Amino acid sequence: MVVLAPLLAEVVTESAQVHDISAQVVTKSAQIHIFTAQVVTNLDLISIKLDCDRGRIKEPTNESNNKGANHMPTKKLYYQDQYLQSFTANLQGSGKDDQGRLYVVLDQTAFYPTGGGQPHDTGTLNGVNVYDVEEVDGEIRHYLEEPAKGDHTFIGEIDWERRFDHMQQHAGQHILSAAFDNEFGLKTVSFHLGTELCSIDLETANLTDEEAAQAEAIANKIILENRPLETKWVTENELAAYSLRKAVSVTDDIRLVIIPEFDYNGCGGTHPDSCGQVQSIKILHWEKQKKQKLRVYFVCGSRVLQQLGAKHQVTQQLTATLNAPQKKLDEAADKALQQIKEHEKTIDTLKLELIKYEANAFIEHATFTHDRNIVQAIFQDRPMRELQQLAKQITMNATNVLVLLISETDNKLQLVCSKSDDILVNMNDLVQQTLPLINGKGGGNRSTAQGGGDKAIAAEQVMEALMNQVSSKLSDR
Fold it and tell me: Strand, helix or coil at 374?
């Protein structure tokens, strides 16, 4: 085993042969950059339960949904050579699933199906895109965008960038989970491999910065030491010889992924054959989950550099926008946000003063109907809050007044109805009887009510309906 100096190593494995007991690794070294990053999510996650902990690989049976044909078990080339990027295979069957998706079944394949905590491979078969791979009822189905070209023989090409990325993330998860378990006794209960980020759920409600940093350091030390990453099929009786991180739930077809003297775990995924190929691991952040669980987000391998590049670009933009160096960005951002809050408060105060003047103008120009002063107005894109404030100012500063206000947008209508205390018309009744015209909802009390709905009719028609009800109610008194 080669132990490389901390902070200066990038291991590219040229040849490695793993045996049950011994391993030989030939490596070259360059520089790995480890950085500190925080993530702002948006996470578009592919969430996959930690099936790999079950440790069982089920070989296909002879059952098939393809027109009653019996297939020989598909040879899983990805277990013989996880680095295989192209292969030739013969057609065993084809068909459509319940959703009408086209698929083919081959006698052997390097396409990894979804499972073992790892998303499926993509690529091509005879030049046709393979967009999904599943193991269904004992057969490995390759789902194609269009009917396959050719009759019997297929040439498969794996999207290697995607596959190797998955191998890096999956192996990195093993290393990080083992670091948390070995150092702090924190068990991993699930694993999520997303398109941008990965996460593990730890069986704990709390995690300190120091604990996260220590687990990350241990994980990266294992990577820099370039320990071998072995796979081995064992029987139930042989399990006692291994200190498993998590007990397997099966008694046969048990496949272990082993990092000697560090991690022994049942898993059905694909991994590099040495830890150095994971390159590096970076914990980004963590958040609490239900049932006393904690979700830790991280990236491995090439994703570390991608995160570094993205974060650096954002940092540079913020440095220019806030006119502050990187170390003082938090301080500058807090200051800017405080200034915005103060400005918004000032704006609200000035708006209220303007509404008071506006209210006085409406009072002066109110329509006198049925011995009552009626204020009615239709606005464009005016917020409900301003309608409520205007109605309140009018009824506070005038007597014998009834207020009907409507705001319209491209596809919505909102209304506020209010009155002074000396008018007996119930505003909630008025609004509730009008809202069905616009498929609306709302409510209030006898003095003030509001609501909104679709622009099913013109705002002028809604105002006319309100005035008709007001006239009817006032004439009855």
Answer: strand
In angstroms, the first-to-last Cα distance of the chain is: 98
The string of pLDDT tens digits covering residues 59-87 is 333 334 444 355 678 999 999 999 999 99
pLDDT average, residue stretch 264-277 = 94
The answer to whether 91 touches 70, Cβ cutoff 8 Å, is: no
Token pair, residue 17, equals 């042969």
Distance CA 388, CA 449 (A): 9
Longest dimension (CA), the chain: 102
> Percent of the chain beyond pLDDT 70?
85
- Provide the CA 139 distance to its chain's centre, in angstroms: 31
CATH label of the domain that carries residue 208: 3.30.980.10
At 109-152, the pLDDT tens digits run 999 999 877 999 999 999 999 999 999 887 999 999 999 877 79
How many domains does the chain contain in total? 3
Mean pLDDT score of the chain: 85
In which domain, by residue range, is 390 found? 355-475
Residues 63, 80, single domain; the answer is yes
CA pair distance 79, 83, nearest whole angstrom: 10
Q: What is the DSSP letter of 380?
A: E
Indicate whether 66 and 184 sit together in one domain.
Answer: no
Instruction: Choose the final residue of a domain: 163, 198, 214.
Output: 163
Query: Rounded CA gap, 408 and 61, in Å?
Result: 64
Residue 286 sits in the same domain as residue 236: yes
The single residue listed with the structure tokens 């291994």 is 242
Q: Tens digit of pLDDT for each residue in 296-328?
A: 999 999 999 999 999 999 999 999 999 999 999
Are residues 375 and 464 both part of a single domain?
yes
Q: Within a 10 A sphere around the Cβ of 116, how many other Cβ atoms?
A: 25
Distance (Å, whole) CA 15 – CA 54: 30
Q: Are residues 237 and 297 in the same domain?
A: yes
**Residue 327 within any structural domain of the chain:** no
